[in-house]
Design a protein that fits this description.
- The chain is mainly α.
- It has nine helices and no strands.
- The longest helix has 29 residues.
Length: 215
């Protein structure tokens, strides 16, 4: 599954990736005007019209003895998409672990296990309120789909330039951090002088006691 996803986002099979990318964007954009059920029904009807037409065409060729009776979608029908017991258990375990991790993290952030992390979470939620005012969740999903199919191939083609820009940004951030640290060191009050060492105090006290005894 991971290898197939990599093939899609890196456009290794341009025709297949183009069909999937266009279908996803058009389907998601259609949801601005239609419900998800309507969009899904129309997609299935469109696919069914194409497959039914091709099936009738091949059947006609078979009746005319121009086709040896080959099913046009036999490769898809023969493809085994079932999961074994081991694969099913592994998939369920992975889903359960992800859900448990998400619940644990949300519980940790909401009930203030770590003050800094909860403050970051609160700031993120506050920013998301502005995002919700300016856009919708469907727009964000469409943007994520376009980015998923665009950024990997863009990074692959402009890898040297992007790395150069990344190094420049990291160097700039490092300079800013060093500047702030130097300013902090210059403004920070100096530490008070340390008291006299304990051995010296002990020696003076011992000499005083000895003088008192001798008197």
């Amino acid at each position: 599954m991971a290898s197939k996803l990599v093939e899609l986002v890196y456009w290794k099979k341009v025709r297949k990736t183009g069909i999937i990318f266009t279908g996803l964007v058009v389907s998601l954009a259609s949801m601005f005007q239609l419900s998800a059920i309507t969009v899904l029904s129309h997609i299935c009807l469109g696919i069914l019209c194409i497959t039914f037409t091709l099936r009738l065409y091949y059947k006609l060729l078979e009746l005319l003895r121009w086709n040896p009776g080959v099913h046009p979608f036999q490769s898809y029908l023969d493809y085994d998409s079932t999961l074994t017991d081991k694969e099913t258990v592994a998939l369920v375990e992975e889903v359960v672990l992800l859900i448990a991790f998400a619940v644990t993290e949300i519980k940790r952030l909401l009930f203030i296990e770590n003050i800094v992390d909860s403050i970051k979470f609160a700031v993120l939620l506050y920013l998301l309120t502005y995002v919700g005012v300016m856009t919708t969740g469907l727009t964000l999903v469409i943007t994520a789909v376009i980015a998923m199919f665009s950024f990997p191939i863009l990074y692959k083609k402009q890898q040297v330039r992007i790395r150069r820009i990344t190094r420049a940004v990291k160097a700039f951030i490092k300079k800013i951090k060093s500047l702030f640290s130097s300013l902090y060191e210059s403004v920070r009050p100096s530490e008070p002088s340390e008291p006299a060492s304990k051995p010296a105090i002990t020696a003076v006290a011992a000499a005083t006691k000895q003088k008192a005894k001798s008197k």
